[in-house]
Amino acid sequence: MQEQFNEIFTKYHEIITIGVYGTSIALMLIGLYAVLTKKNLVKMVIGLSIVDAGIHLLFVGIGYIQNGTAPIFSPGNENAGDRMVDPVPQALVLTAIIIGFAITAVALSLIIRLYKHHNTAKIDQIKYLKW
Amino acid sequence: MVISPIHYIFVPLVAAFAIPLLSKINKELPRIIPGIVMFYNIIISFVLMQEVNEVGYISEVIAGWEAPWGINLVITPFSGFLVSLISVLGFLIWLYGFRFKKVIDAGELRSYNILQMMMITGAIGIIITGDIFNMFVFLEIVAITAISLTSFYRGRDGAEAGFKYLLIGGFASALILLAILILYTQVGTLNMAEIAERMHTVPQGIKATILLLFIVGFGIEAELFPLNGWAPDAYSQAPGPTSSAFAGIVVKAGVYGLIRIIFTLFDVDGAYDFLITAGLITMIIAEASALRQTNLKRMLAYSSIGQMGLALIAFGIGTKEAVFGAMFLLFNHAVIKSLLFMTGSILIYNSKDKTINSLSGIAKKLPFISILFAIGAFAIVGLPPFSGFWSKLYVLTAAADENMILLIAAILAVSVVEIVYYFRVVGKLYFPDKESNIEVYRPKFNAMIAMGVLGVVILVIGFYPDLITGYLHNAADILLDKASYIRFVLNADLPIQ
């Protein structure tokens, strides 16, 4: 019973791994597509956020190990050293999320100002400076 | 030790949080505090540079976690030199911009001062950190503050320039994050010395991929072609002191990041050739674009990009002499281009439409500013009595030692282009087509001092280049000695002789 469970779990783990990597790469590509092809400034910023989200997901994905525990030596988990998930990517991703948030906030405030001056959010109608 | 590298980051951050509170007490405090912080930075630099001269390296461990596990700050002769340069320039730029915008409301004054201070702090952070992710965080601090300062004026074009910068910058940050991610899966560490040590285990193909991502990411701050589309707009739309800070400080930090990553972290075949090629393309295209600009600040911005291309070429040659020449060039460019932007901002403030043609004959009204602008222009094209001559000469001799004749020809040809467009401006200043009777705004005493100091530095270094060449030779030696960096950071109690 336990072996069967482990077998299923291993397969499940592979699916999760492929799923996480695949999803993150798909998110990056979707974001890139939006940034490159959309004419609306808000949509471009959304695309940028999606690229960021894909990278964040990949970050968390590489730190994941099968059947892992939190990286804390707690009672009952004294010898869990090799089963602990890597805490570094998680710490990095928190920082990266905050930076992404800041960039999005600045971008949206700039869009509001652009809209006030140009009365449009279409990138091809805003071209007083040479693009 | 009372003074440590952490003060570079800690003191401005505390000050930035304190400024909004203290501005309730006195309206003048927001503009005085950054000056105090910048002056303290100069003191730190002075103390640390003496220590670096004695022991070779300083590695400051943060929060008691030793080097590979915690974040550390490393000061080498190269980074110490750049940080000192940035500290002094930061102070002078503050002095120049002290009476900047006398009449704007308190909120804008506050945010301008905080952002300007944080931008300089971020640039210093990029240079002194020994941790690759920490470098990314500081790069983002620089990017966000620089974007905000670009769109500081509430006009139409400021927001557009800022948004353009933000799109490129946001994309670059995603790429650097991806590069750090791949690097971490390969070497399992974020400490730059440890990465450099383990780098030989990484397959060449993956190494090249990571390097490419980093080059694109940092190339944006270093104004590498074709990633520099933001630069001319940002320089021309930002307030005067901020354009000086872009040219003197932000670009230096970007170039440092690029150089540290290529020289210390990676030893990919062809990275140096790539630097030469990229630098050459950047230089030629930028100088050709500068030639056809009518807006003075845009012209200066393109010239700045061109100079950075030359610095990258010199770094790419990779010999000790060439790296020394590149460092000298970074120093000269920081001093000269800051002066040009400071004087140029005052000149175009007095012109009708910011164009070069409308500056006709302004030298009569503003003799001091015009003289300083002329000194800067002569120095940056590399005329003999000024400091720019020496750095160009050293780069050219280094290229000649390597028998790179075509490179020398390209640099000299570009210098001729530089002479044409700078002399066109100086000629307009002194030999007017027609007499103009405009009322001019005269800069205040503090701005005069800041610009005067830079002008004197250009002349003094021009006559006595030995004042800094000895130190720069040492810095170039140590930058190329990757093994000592690794050994020192991972084993911080063994100073390198």
Describe the structure.
- The complex is a heterodimer of chains A (131) and B (497).
- Chain A is mainly alpha-helical.
- Helix content of chain A is 69%, strand content 0%.
- Chain A contains three helices and no strands.
- Chain A is elongated.
- The termini of chain A are far apart.
- Helices cover 74% and strands 2% of the residues of chain B.
- Chain B is built from 19 helices and two strands.
- Chain B has helices at 7-22, 29-55, 77-96, 106-128, 132-150, 156-187, 192-198, 204-221, 230-237, 240-265, 271-291, 296-317, 320-349, 367-381, 387-401, 405-430, 445-463, 466-480, 482-490; strands spanning 58-61, 72-75.
- The chains are: A mainly alpha (131), B mainly alpha (497).
- Chain A binds chain B through residues 35, 41, 44, 48, 51-52, 55, 58-59, 62, 88-89, 92, 95-96, 99, 102-103, 106-107, 110-111, 113-114, 117-118, 126, 128-131, and chain B through 133, 137, 140, 143-144, 147-148, 151, 154-157, 159-164, 166-167, 169-171, 173-174, 177-178, 180-181, 184-185, 190, 229, 233, 237.
The most extensive contact between chains is:
A-B, 31 and 35 residues
Average of pLDDT of chain A:
82
Biggest beta-sheet profile of chain B:
2 strands, antiparallel
Unreliable stretches of chain B? none
**Annotation field: number of helices of chain B:** 19
Number of strands of chain B: 2
Low-confidence regions of chain A: none
Following the backbone from N to C, one meets helices and strands of chain B in this order, namely HHEEHHHHHHHHHHHHHHHHH
Spatial strand arrangement across the major sheet of chain B: 1-2
Radius of gyration of chain A: 21 Å
